[in-house]
Amino acid sequence: MTDDNLRRVTVERTGTGHFTATNARGGTIAFGTTGEDEFTPVELLLAAIGGCTAADVDVATGRHAEPTRFTLTVTGDKISDEQGNRMTDLAVTFSVAFPDGEGGDRARAILPRAVKTSHDRLCTVSRTIEAGTPVTVTVADA
Fold first, then answer.
1. How many helices (H) and strands (E) does the chain have?
2. Would you give the distance in Å from CA 78 to the centre of its chain?
3. C-alpha dihedral over 130, 132, 51, 121, to 10 degrees?
4. Exposed e or buried b for every residue in 110-123, given b needs 16+ CB within 10 A?
5. How far is 8 from 22, CA to CA, in rounded Å?
6. pLDDT digits (tens, 9 = 90+) for 7-66
7. Are 52 and 76 in contact (CB under 8 A)?
8. Helix-strand-coil split of the chain, %, nearest 5
9. Quick one: average pLDDT of 96-110?
């Protein structure tokens, strides 16, 4: 794998149940497991699915018209069964509106195709989940 393909995030514990993820560019996001206002890891997964497909759809439709509403909701059921803890029934629902006029008409016309293309080919996050990519976990020497 080349450096161009490698993506990296470092997660640091900042307190009991609190963490900060830092990307290679220095951006950070705080999250936690204590039920406060921070996102939980599962909510970050849902946000990653939504954010990835939202970015794809925004590029495709935004070149025709600026949306007057662009919201999506990502839902799923967190379950625990013989396979362990996991999410099922993941769903992304778009609610998008465009202004009247030629550009808005073009954006509305391509919206379904843009959503489908993101889901079927472009969104790295949802494509990875659907493909079932293995995750390797190791403990580094101290």
1. 3, 5
2. 17
3. -50
4. bbeebbebbbeebb
5. 9
6. 999 999 999 999 999 999 999 999 999 867 899 999 999 999 999 999 999 999 999 999
7. no
8. 35, 30, 30
9. 98
**Token pair of 97, please?**
């509106």
Q: What is the identity of the amino acid at 43?
A: E
Q: Calculate the alpha carbon distances from 107 to 64, 73, 98, 127 in Å.
A: 6, 20, 7, 24
Q: What are phi and psi of 23, to 5 degrees?
A: -90, 175
- Residues 124 and 126: their CA atoms lie apart, in Å, by 6
pTM over 0.85: yes
Question: What pLDDT score does 4 carry?
Answer: 87
Q: Which two tokens stand for residue 105?
A: 């008409």
Residue with tokens 């808005």: 104
Dist. CA 88–CA 131, nearest whole Å: 14
Q: Which residue has the tokens 């070149």?
A: 63
Neighbours of 105 (CB within 10 A): 14
| Beta-strand pair 9-15/18-23 | antiparallel
Amino acid at 11: V
